[in-house]
Amino acid sequence: MENIESFNKENLFEKKEKHPLKEDILNEASIAYEEKNIPLSVSPEKARDLKEEIENMKEYKDYLQRDVSMEDVAEKINSLEKETDNKDVKTVTSFIRETAENISELCFRYAKIIKKIEKFSNMERFRLDPSGYQEKLKEYDRKRRECHNSIVSSLTSIRRNIEEKLIKDFKLDIDPDITLSFDALKDRDYISKWAQITATGKELEEYHEKLTQVEKDVA
Fold first, then answer.
1. What whole-number distance in Å separates Cα of residue 162 and Cα of residue 96?
2. Alpha helices in the chain (DSSP H)
3. Residue 9 lies in a domain
4. Cα-based distances in Å from 51 to 47, 120, 202
5. pTM of the model
6. Are 201 and 63 in contact (CB under 8 A)?
7. Is 91 a member of any domain?
8. pLDDT tens for each residue of 116-132
9. 1: helix, coil or strand?
10. How far apart are CA 192 and CA 185, in angstroms?
11. Could you tell me if residue 34 is inside a domain?
């Protein structure tokens, strides 16, 4: 069974060498994602430098090389939906597409909780009394676990509907491995890492796109 002690050993609590520019970029990317059309007060030259930094970041490379993308799942399912007039098939594909879109938001929520836990652990560990610290940490961990379970449940539902409904019942030609396998879904550490890569990478990707727009607007 999961507990706070095992959670503290996950990758997010590993000691990492701080990179000031990288931390700034991650923070700016997160703000840019939440604010959507935030104006970037950077020059085209600075935009090019920031884009290069992003492209060399491990978080961005991991995102581009991730095993499964919910955007790809939604796109493939959407194509199937457009190709059929079968109402039963459309019901299933619509459910899968909406679930895939919702998983992306769950990943952002999960990553945000992780950041809060990291910040709380670093700032409050020695300020609060031990019982108060543990109580608050347990509350954060409960929210993290609930969000994690929601991600796993949604991913499991997608896999099951693809295999049992689209392939077995409706005989559609679709690769079930466009989404995560049942074996992968049993690995909680893997899902935690996948969710964080998905959220952080998406923020960096959209920030990269905004920086590209800065260059185009001036050109």
1. 8
2. 4-7, 20-35, 44-55, 58-64, 70-83, 87-124, 130-160, 182-185, 188-218
3. no
4. 6, 30, 14
5. 0.84
6. yes
7. yes
8. 999 898 888 778 888 88
9. coil
10. 10
11. no
